[in-house]
Each structure stands twice: as C-alpha cells, then as structure tokens.
Specification:
The chain has one helix at residues 46-52, and strands spanning 8-11, 21-26, 30-35, 41-45, 53-57. It is mostly beta strands. The protein has a single domain, classed as SH3 type barrels, CATH 2.30.30. A hairpin with a 3-residue loop joins β2 (21-26) and β3 (30-35). The chain is globular, with a radius of gyration of 10 Å.
Length: 59
C-alpha cells in the first residue's frame, strides 16, 4: 500500500465518536492517525491499519 503522511484514510469501522475518516500523522511499524471529527490521536499497528482501510484519499 502506498500511504503517505497527510493522506486521509476511510476505514471500514467507525471511531467511537461515529467518524470513519482519519488523517495520517506518522508512518512506521505503527501508524499515528487522528480522527477528523473529534481530533483524538491513536497509534495503531501497521497490519491492523492495512487490513481495515476502505479507501485512501490522497492529498
């Protein structure tokens, strides 16, 4: 997958606030993503992110 910092990811599952769009802040073994609605930042393992991506909106 070709994901870059600044891309917006649409995930299959929603965040608890109801949003499913996330900004990519950091890439490595873990991804740091920020919810577009509530602003919560989360570190998620690469394997879990790549499995749950529905669509990538490039910037």
């Amino acid at each position: 997958m070709d994901i870059k910092v600044g891309d917006v990811l649409q995930m299959k599952k929603n965040h608890p606030c109801g949003e499913n769009m996330f900004d990519v802040l950091r890439i490595g073994m873990d991804f740091k993503i920020r919810c577009k609605k509530c602003g919560r930042e989360v570190m998620v393992p690469r394997k879990k992110i790549e499995k749950n991506i529905k669509k990538i909106h490039e910037t």
